[in-house]
Amino acid sequence: MREMKNQRQLEYERSLFNADALMVSAREKADELGLLGISLSFSEASLLTLVVQLAKCRKFVEIGTLTGFSSLAILEGIESGGHLWTFEKNPVHAKIADELLQAGATAKGKSVQVVQGDAEQELKTLEDQGPFDGIFIDGNKSAYLKYLDWAEKNIKQGGLIIADNVFLQGTVWGEENKKFSTKQIEVMKEFNKRLSDPEKYLFSLVPTTEGLIVAQKRTS
User: Fold this and answer.
1) Which of 97, 98, 139, 212 fits a disulfide with 64 by CB distance 3.0 to 4.6 angstroms?
2) What is the mean pLDDT of the chain?
3) Residue 135: other Cβ atoms inside 10 A
4) SS3 at position 195
């Protein structure tokens, strides 16, 4: 859960980002569901767009659609004619997101597929479409290592692996939080350790409230 900043700071940050009506709607839908606290902020979404655009991604995978806010940020960043596959387990969230994302993709000359189901099971159905240019991981915390196993096999050399919530509300460095199990904490610590391996990845840890990893698979 992201900590709420003071209202003046939120209004100032919002004023700096030229979010379109669909992105605003996606945030509003998350708020109506009582889930705004687990959605990316505008500044995090803009960073996601920037990184995806700089890497010239065309084929991108997302795990954890929610109402489509982060998906729209990815769509903004991928190349014209590019495609996004995004996974959402909750059917209500998937339906909301699909309506917004289809409109956003059409307007941008891109395409998107919302896959409703458990990403851990459904990712295998995409493998014949790879290799992919990148993946954004923001799903079931217990499955982060499974997602990483898939990414290491299916993301191209030089491709991106981006992940949110990697601080797990401070539990990875010893803060107490009964929300997370010992398994979830150990999974996230191992996930972070693997992506920080300098022989495999060019790695950056962005110290957002929840922690954001941006890693590029090394080409040699």
Assistant:
1) 139
2) 92
3) 23
4) helix
For 28, list phi and psi in degrees, rounded to 5: -65, -40
Handedness of CA 185, 188, 190, 196 (dihedral sign): negative
Residue 36's pLDDT band, with cuts at 50, 70 and 90, is confident
Alpha carbons 200 and 46: distance in angstroms, whole number: 26
CA dist list (Å): 128 to 11, 29, 50, 170, 190: 44, 33, 27, 38, 28
CA gap 19, 44 in Å, rounded: 12
pLDDT-derived band at 163, boundaries 50, 70, 90 = very high
Cα–Cα distance for residue pair 121/107, rounded to 1 Å: 31
Distance CA 191, CA 183 (A): 12
Domains and CATH numbers, the chain: 7-217 (3.40.50.150)
φ, ψ for residue 198, nearest 5 deg: -70, -15
DSSP 20-87: -HHHHHHHHHHHHTT-GGGSPPHHHHHHHHHHHHHTT-SEEEEE--TTSHHHHHHHHHSPTT-EEEEE
pTM of the model: 0.93
Contact 83, 110 (CB under 8 A): yes
Helix (H, G, I), strand (E, B) or coil at 98: helix
80, 86, 133, 146 from 60: Cα distances, Å: 13, 8, 6, 18
Distance CA 92, CA 183 (A): 28
